[in-house]
Amino acid sequence: MKFNFKNLRYSIVSISVGFVLSMILVYKFMLSPLLNKNSSGQHGMMATLVSAQKPLVQDIQDSAEAVGTLRADESVIIRPENAGKIISFDFQEGERVKAGTVIIKLDSEMNKAQLAQAEANLALSKLKMWRADALLKKNFGKKGDRDEAATNLKVNEAQVVFEKARLDKTSLIAPFDGIIGLRKFSLGDYVQIGQDLVNIEKINPLKVDFTLPEIYAAAIKSGQEIELDVPALSNMKFKGQVYAVNPHIDEEGRNLSIRAKLENADLSLKPGMFVKVKAILGMRKNSLIIPEEALIPSNNEVSVFKIVDQTAHLVKIKVGLRQKGTIEVLEGITAKDLIITAGHSKLAPGMKVTLEKPSGAQS
């Protein structure tokens, strides 16, 4: 009898296929339901360990932050309106000066002579006017001569006023109380009209200029309080008050220009200093505050997990002010909600949770 290897091979293949199909049927109808049942039971029994706390309830300041620059309350550079030689100055650089004090004098001899000449011409004009008027009253003079004398009188009166004004301008005065700066001239210098000589700064009070985005246009008003940090003075804090808001919004940056004023009695602040500005826009009562790590951002939305019946529930919230690791919640939760602050990276909505420790925050 001849052994048929070909038939044997077909038999082995058929038996193998039948065995595999049998195993699949056994797994599908017997083992799979049992395994799924055990797995579901184990999943239902296990809970994720998390940390949670209730929101803090507190009043918070609504504010906007910016950077600004200090400005002198008044600032001027003294410049002569007449050309001339400086014959004296009466100040020390860096000292305080009073409004109306003569601080620089120019040579005035020529101006005095021109004033004397104008006054002499005025006296002659008055005499001619008197004579012309007297002759006209006696019918010996002409009305045209009197009119000419009257005109010359007015011209010479104006000339005297002009020369007096030019003489006065040889004395340069301080226009307001302030601190005088560094002079840019020497005694005996011949100076031209409009040449910079010295600056005067009024630095108590001071102004501060800063800008805010246009979204604050309705919130920022005259009288608003501000707080200032000055890095140059080891972040010393000062208080001020807004007194002017530019009615025109910058078209390029869409920013609003604001000016405030603050006291500087000890003169520690200087014009030109860089400052950090916080504008106080108001107070919000009973705000809900949670740790920033509780947030779960997704696209343009923010959510948190809260615990209800030992189950994690994902809720969307509306956030407000952020400050120092905390966030204000405007909508979405209440003061009684238990908010998960750690462990939420392993959570999905509906999962059972257990607290790692009792909440330390109070509502």
Characterization of the model:
It contains three helices and 19 strands. By secondary structure, the chain is α+β, with helices and mostly antiparallel strands. The chain folds into four domains: 1-45; 48-59 and 285-355, Beta Barrel (conserved putative lor/sdh protein from methanococcus maripaludis s2 fold); 65-71 and 203-284, Elongation Factor Tu (Ef-tu), domain 3; 76-191, RNA polymerase II/Efflux pump adaptor protein, barrel-sandwich hybrid domain (OB fold (Dihydrolipoamide Acetyltransferase, E2P)), CATH 2.40.50. A hairpin with a 5-residue loop joins strand 10 (225-230) and strand 11.
Shape: elongated
Which percent band covers the strand fraction? 35-45%
Class based on secondary structure composition and strand pairing:
alpha+beta
Strand order of the largest sheet: 2-9-12-11-10-13
Number of strands: 19
Q: Low-confidence spans: pLDDT under 50, at least 5 residues?
A: 31-45, 359-363
Oligomer: single chain
Sheet having the most strands: 6 strands, antiparallel, barrel
Overall helicity: 25-40%
One letter per element, helices H and strands E, the order comes to HEEEEEHHEEEEEEEEEEEEEE
CATH architecture of the largest domain: Beta Barrel
Roughly how many Å is the radius of gyration? 45 Å
Number of domains: 4
Mean pLDDT figure: 86
Distance between the termini: 96 Å
What is the CATH fold-level name of the largest domain?
Answer: OB fold (Dihydrolipoamide Acetyltransferase, E2P)
